[in-house]
Amino acid sequence: MVGLLALASAGTLVATSSVACSIIPMTTAEKWQFNQDSRAASKPVQVGHLCEFTNAGLHDGISAGPAKRLGNNRFFQVMGTFDGKVSDILVGDCNTREVIRLVSRVDPSTETAGTSCGPEFSGVLPILKPEGDFTLKEGKSVADLVILARASSNVRVDEALETILLDGLEKRLPRKDRFDLLCGCKLYYPDTPGANL
Q1: What confidence tens digit (pLDDT) does each residue in 53-79 have?
Q2: Euclidean distance between CA atoms 186 and 47, whole angstroms
Q3: First to last CA, the chain
Q4: Is residue 2 domain-resident?
Q5: Is residue 69 a part of any domain in this protein?
Q6: Could you say which of 47, 67, 97, 147 would form a disulfide bridge with 51 (CB–CB 3.0 to 4.6 Å)?
């Protein structure tokens, strides 16, 4: 499952000058306090009848559009777009209960001067055809999509999907901040193993 947020547990980013960039780690007490403050300020997840959701995650920053059928007991949800192109997709396999997240790679031709922390990019590479490398209907399983994505220079498979269900101390998020990764199974394929979790 996928990590969408850079959480405070990783540290606080501080640009001390135009020449230096450093990560100053938080103490355990600072992490705990940040986590408590974030939990208190967080709004409950809002879920629609087609599994679309907003306000997920510790900082309310995770959302997705409606689940859509792919056939073969699979579904997908768009979690992000950039410049009119799909840049972030959640794909679920209701037979195997597997969920993956495919994320666009940055477009190296759009590199800007950047910051003291490194280069910045103003574009992403397309995931889906006709501009991208593949369609979500290729292959017979989510595992097949992972193989195709790894072979693509435009897409990466986010290997840390589970982390979007964790807080800043890597504990399970409160129920109000979680979302059902397999909601599309319950919606479209109610007789599959993914619908019965």
Answers
A1: 887 776 677 788 999 999 899 999 988
A2: 13
A3: 16
A4: no
A5: yes
A6: 67
